[in-house]
Amino acid sequence: MDTKYIQNFLKVIESGSMSEAARQLDISPAAVAQQMRGLEQVLGVALLVRHGRSVRPTAAGERLFERGKQLVQDCDQLREWVASDTDHGELRLGTVNTALHGFLPGVMQAFVARHESVRVTVRVGLTPDLYTALLQSTLDAALCLKPSFDLPKTVSWTGLRQEPLVLLVPHADAAQDPLQLLRTRPLVRYDRELAGGKLADRYLKALGIAPRERLELNSVLAVAMMVEQGLGVGLVPDIGQALTSQRPICALDLPPLPHGHGLGYSPLSPVRELGLLWLNTSTRIRWVRSLLECAQAESRGAITAAGS
Q: Which CATH architecture has domain 163-271?
């Protein structure tokens, strides 16, 4: 039995028609129909009920759909495991948007230098979505924020970067008190639906600062661009040189929160942690470990550069 036929059967069920599945697979509808008939003959049961241009699974088709995804995934992993002595294949990496623009490029440069024949596919998303994809084995690793819950034994985490909040201001305000600027200047907010935006919001509330809000954006780089245009100051996680490079702005350090702020969270300093999550059972674990080494080296280099 050709697992490709099962994979295409899954596509037919997901799309609801053979013609749409054929379009997505870039083959002819007749070829898809022939594969489905062949699959039915091999299994000895009807898998599809046809209604005009649409199809739906029979009871046997539903059972195949339920088990087929895992079967296809297992076969893919088996092929990669058998060929594990070669350095060819694909690493599926997830990342949060801020790491994509700040930390990841240097990591990728080092990884590609080690593994020229490994193809890396990068998926951008929020940490909870990347974690779910990791558990479903659609990702091998994720560069993301530290989860706030205990991880199962099948998942590992290593912290890589501490990213404190910083205040983005024009160069002319580099010597000013950052808290006074937050009280008096318009604020270009980082989206409060995102972890970094929530951290900034908690920090402001803990200090009793009610900023004069002008914009709210879901991109750290977009906040930096608005500050560059003189639209206000920006309170964002420090993702590195990408924030201020070639822009007439600078990043001011913020004072830690005082003890007894009463918000029930820690640490007192406004910091978030970026690191690597990975699935211990991934057949690509050796590439994940190599990626981790590259990320750790990049992190050490960034710390050294910041301290020099």
A: 3-Layer(aba) Sandwich (3.40)
